[in-house]
Design a protein that fits this description.
One of its GO terms (molecular function) is hydrolase activity. By secondary structure, the chain is of the alpha/beta class. The protein has helices spanning 19-31, 49-61, 65-73, 119-123, 155-168, 181-192, 207-213, 221-236, 239-246, 248-257, 259-272, 282-295, 298-312, 337-340, 359-362, 364-378; strands at residues 8-12, 76-82, 85-92, 100-105, 132-138, 174-179, 197-203, 319-327, 344-351. It has a single domain (4-378), classed as Alpha/Beta hydrolase fold, catalytic domain (Rossmann fold, 3-Layer(aba) Sandwich), CATH 3.40.50.1820. The chain is built from 16 helices and nine strands. A nine-stranded mixed beta sheet has the order 1-2-3-5-4-6-7-8-9, with helices on both faces. Helix 4 (119-123) links the parallel strand 4 (100-105) and strand 5 (132-138). The mean pLDDT is 95.
């Protein structure tokens, strides 16, 4: 329940990291003590040492944070207080009559910058496509929203905060898109405020569906592949989630103090969960790492797993608003339509030929085309 007494109206926001903080980051990177490494080190061991050294060198010596600031500050940004915590957003208006409000929700270890190749084409299409007014918030506890400072910021509470944010921006009804953590919040928003949501668009990771059905024999090749991906993830790729869900404070000490540790923690995921044919660039990885570093939110973002982990273990009530899903072959687990139909009213499903867990960075054209087609069919 949102506490109106702790709320505050929208205030203009500008990203501006002091020169002293940039200098301190570079000093920490250059002075970092790195671990030993095996001669046959592989991704099965975790972040590759050679890859980490290369990223560290780029972050310390050539990465242009001021260009990131300029990119973000080219758009209207707001900071407000909702239910006692800061909520930041980019407010990218189309200026076209009849533009469809669109809420874009990032995941972990992502940020608002992940949508940088998406909001331009969606708000200013070159042809007769649907135009959008895009709202791109930093989820509570993530990035420029700053750290949350109390318990209870699960997907439901974040969803309620997003509903308030959209009202403050003048959008009573809207389309919402989410991936990763953003898909959990977008789904909760659609369940809790269905009268507000025109349609729900997801790059729906299939981890939950595969987990719910794992005891069943696969009925087709899509299910067989999903089970294989799920087993591999559980065996070799899920330790980060277990740590963040059970001991977020412990890992926060290391990641808040060491930029190299933070970089290794999130860069591994950007590399592992992306389509090898469309890797996330070093600049995009360093953009995300910089945002978590300068805002001090790696700990509070990890706490989301602690708040929501129990909810991920079981399906929630079915979503009744129209739903579109993009299924990417290199996601952690590629979703299976018949499993998803138990929880969502799916009116558009796209099995895409390429792409992974970060479609706005890897294959933004697929995401743009899918959102446009979905909105055109609904409005």
């Amino acid at each position: 329940m949102i506490d109106a007494a702790t709320d505050r109206d929208l205030e203009p926001y500008t990203v501006s990291v002091p020169d002293a903080e940039l200098a301190e980051l570079r000093e920490r990177l250059r002075a970092a003590r790195l671990p030993d490494e095996l001669p046959d080190a592989s991704w099965r061991d975790g972040m590759l040492p050679a890859e980490l050294r290369s990223l560290r060198h780029e972050w310390a010596d050539s990465f242009d944070w001021r260009a990131v600031e300029a990119m973000l500050n080219a758009e209207t940004q707001w900071l407000t207080t909702i239910d006692g915590t800061g909520v930041h957003c980019l407010d990218v208006r189309s200026g076209r009559p009849g533009a469809v409000p669109l809420l874009l929700l990032h995941g972990w270890p992502s940020s608002v910058a992940e949508f940088r190749s998406v909001w331009g084409p969606l708000t200013a299409p070159e042809n007769g496509s649907v135009a959008f007014d895009a709202v791109v918030p930093s989820l509570p506890g993530f990035g420029f929203s700053g750290p949350t400072r109390e318990r209870g910021w699960d997907a439901d509470r974040m969803a309620d905060a997003m509903a308030v944010l959209m009202s403050r921006l003048g959008h009573e009804r809207f389309v919402v898109h989410g991936g990763d953590v953003g898909s959990e919040v977008a789904t909760a928003l659609s369940r809790r405020h269905p009268e507000r949501v025109i349609g729900l668009h997801l790059n729906l990771g299939g981890t939950r569906g595969a987990g719910e059905h794992r005891a069943e024999p696969p009925a087709n090749e899509a299910q067989r592949r999903a089970f294989g991906q799920y087993d591999a993830y559980r065996a070799n790729g899920s330790a980060y989630a277990a740590i963040q869900a059970t001991r977020p404070q412990t890992v926060a000490f290391a990641l808040t103090d060491s930029p190299v540790g933070l970089l290794a923690w999130i860069a591994e995921k950007f590399r592992e969960w992306a389509d090898p044919a469309h890797p996330v660039t070093g600049a995009d990885i360093l953009t995300a790492a910089s945002i978590y570093w300068f805002t001090g939110t790696v700990g509070s973002s990890a706490r989301f797993y602690q708040e929501s982990f129990a909810g991920w273990a079981a399906p929630g009530a079915a979503v009744t608003v129209p739903v579109a899903v993009c299924a990417y072959p290199f996601d952690i687990v590629t979703p299976v339509r018949e499993w998803a139909e138990g929880s969502y009213d799916i009116v558009q499903w796209r099995d895409l030929p390429d792409g992974g867990h970060f479609p706005a960075l890897e294959t933004p054209h697929h995401l743009i085309d899918s959102v446009r087609a979905f909105a055109a069919a609904l409005t």
